[in-house]
Amino acid sequence: MRISNADNTVNIRWPSKFNEIPKEVFHREDVYRLELERIFMGPEWHMVAHRAELANPGDYKTFQIGEAPVLIVHGEDGKLRVFQNACPHRGTQLATCPRGSGRKIECPYHRWTFKNTGELAGIPGVADFPKDFRKEDYGLRELRSAEVYGIVFATFSADAPEIDEWLGETKPYIAHFLDGDGDLTLLGYQKVLFDSNWKEYGDNEGYHAPLLHVAARLLRFPKTRGEQFMTTHAHKVNLTELPEPGDAGFLRDPSVIMPFDATKRIQASVIQLYPISLILRNHDTITMRFVFPRSVDCTEVHYAYFGRREDSAELSSYRARQASNLLGPSGFISLEDGAVFNRIHVASRTPGTVAFQKGVTGPITAPITMDKGEEATNLIRWERYRQTMGFERA
Questions:
Q1: Predicted confidence (pLDDT) per residue in 1-26, tens digit
Q2: Exposure string (b/e) for 34-43, b if CB count within 10 Å is 16 or more?
Q3: 263: buried, middle or exposed (CB in 10 Å: 19+, 13-18, 0-12)?
Q4: 121 and 113 in contact (C-beta within 8 Å)?
Q5: What was the pLDDT predicted at 245?
Q6: Which residue, 172, 249, 345, 353, could crosslink 20 as a Cys pair with Cβ 3.0–4.6 Å?
Q7: What is the value of pTM for the model shown?
Q8: Whole-Å CA distances, 320 to 299, 327, 373
């Protein structure tokens, strides 16, 4: 199939079999450039922040959607807005710090200043500007954004559906994961670069978990009960109940795998939003993974850890210790993933296709519910990707 646009021509022979994916989509630069246009600048919503990261008026956070820098700001009016992180005058990047705070935003190049609600406030040398210059035409360029249980979503596209329609069946699960209100506090971050394509990072599934991860076996993951639900928009919800792990003698501090409240069930639950954002509840942890591609060969992941506003100091400390040790980039349940993502990426330069097998009985469509250990549900995401990119089956 040949796809042409003003900047790109992409030829991909997509396999006719429903369960096969061409390896070349993981490493071809022309495919990646088309993804930036059709997915990251296209009619999709992207998770860029949580209100707990910008708790006070004037607070801001920098992030990226694809390769485009964005600036999320808590305005003096209490509203969270998402702007292009670029001065509307000459396009200079405005903020470089991951997070900060201030009453105004200043461009370092010509010292134009903006209110934290986006309006242009100050301009040196304005007396020499053209007569038709209007300050109101040069506020910060704002993206469409929406806040759901404190999570900030943004899109560059006017064609993206309304956020509730886009979230669809996942919205009640998000409410459940965030205890109905999203009233969180930020505990901290871990940030990492993976030498892999963003789709390799996002192609993770339940089949591998008890086979790749040693800790999953130690925690008796194979004996767990659970299911995964794929929505009509290719979002995935995975719900698992974990057995009591007990002290098997492999940890000096067994509390990192035990619930703070011993009367509560231990759960491991994941929401993966298309194309690449994740929300996780595992034991006492509340984690969001903010993800964007650095290049066709590199993916950046921000592991953000949260607690509840009403948490005691003891519970906050407990959550923080569990978060990084369980689900961080070197956590018990995720340590081996980074190495595998890279090995998939290296091997993607061999010719041919990859084929999903576990749980595949024929073409499947969403919504669908399957056992937590199947890999077939990822094919729903791949079919959405194929259609968005315009690749026809051979």
A1: 344 444 456 889 899 999 999 999 99
A2: bbbebbbbbe
A3: exposed
A4: yes
A5: 66
A6: 353
A7: 0.93
A8: 24, 11, 28
